[in-house]
Every structure is written in structure tokens, then in C-alpha cells.
Amino acid sequence: MARAGEPYHYDRTQRGFHWLMAALILVALGIGIYAAWQVPGTSPRRELLDLHKSIGLTVLLLLPLRLVYRLIAGEPAYRAPPSRSAHLAAKAAHASLYALMLLLPVSGYVYSAAGGYGLPWFGVLSFPRLVPVDKALSLAGYAAHYWIAWGVGIVLGIHVLAVAWHAWIRRDEVMGRMWPRRAARG
Question: Which residues form a coiled coil (predicted)?
Fold first, then answer.
């Protein structure tokens, strides 16, 4: 059941985590794709990859904060609950997104750390190398990072299609749960 004064919507902090992390992930994906087309070892590739790593490590640092807050704050009620199968599909999709948000930066970290590459965070500090420099491990990290990135792209595409389906076909409240509340809405 929804609480008085805050019905049917995620709170401001949950929405902030959602949109901030969505923006960071999309930017990191775009930078990563663009950097892949640049000549290895040259500028701007090095700088782009440093920014890509910084953003990815930021996502990795934000993820546990987001998960803990989600566990504390919970999920808002629905006016009209979705079917059991739709609710289970949404839970599975969200679990997949959370797993991918963890695995993508971890695999990128392993690729970079094991490859002997730097682990910068916006030029302010460098993350410690927690794995040995190991070419085979770096290659495994690269392969995992590459395929997990594809997984993120696919799951995000499905997520966006589901949002569009709820907004424009079902015309239900699902999309509005993550948007800021409007004064006229309940």
C-alpha cells in the first residue's frame, strides 16, 4: 500500500540514482564504442579510455549505495498491480540490469588491471591494482567486458521498449513511477 503524500512513485533519491546511473552508463558505453574505433596508444583514445574507466568505476561505487537504499526504501505500491507474469518479468529484468551494472565495470577493471593499464578516477586518484598483471587474465577480462557490454545494450534496449510499451500502448502508471511527481497527479 502506498504511504500518504508519496503514493505510487519512487522517492527522489531512488529516481536520482536511476537517472544518474542511466546517464553514466549510456555515456560510458558511447565513449567505449567511440574509443574502440581510435588507434590504440594514441590521443584521444587514451584520454577517452581514462574517462570511460572513471565513469565505469563511478557506477561500480554507486551500485552498492543504490542497492542498500533500495532495500531500505522499498518499492512504491501500484494503483493497479501488474499481472503476476508481468511483475516477475520486471523483477527478472531489473535483476539482470543490476547484475550487468556490477559485471561490466568489474570485467573492465580486470581487463585494465591485469593488462597493466592505469586505473584512473577523473585524474584525482588511481584505483589500486587488486589482480596481478597477467596477459591471459587481461584477455579474459576483455572478452567478458566486450560480451557483457553487448548484454547491457540488449537489456537496456528491452528496458526502453518495455517503457515505451507501458507508456504508449498500455498507457499505465509504470513509466510515471520513475518520473518526478507533478502537482496534479496522485
Answer: none
pLDDT at position 182 is 56
Is the pLDDT confidence value at 95 over 80?
yes
Q: What is the pLDDT of residue 6?
A: 47
State which residues form the domain around 36: 12-178
The CATH number linked to 96 is 1.20.950.20
Read off the pTM.
Answer: 0.88
Q: For the chain, give the percent of residues with pLDDT over 70.
A: 93
Query: How far is the C-alpha of 7 from the C-alpha of 177, rounded, in Å?
Result: 9
Distance CA 67, CA 140 (A): 28
- In the chain, what is the straight-line distance between the N-terminal and C-terminal CA atoms, in Å? 14
**What whole-number distance in Å separates Cα of residue 5 and Cα of residue 168?**
27
Distance CA 43, CA 185 (A): 50
- For the chain, how many structural domains are there in total? 1
- From CA 57, how far away is CA 136, in angstroms rounded? 22
pLDDT at 26 over 70: yes
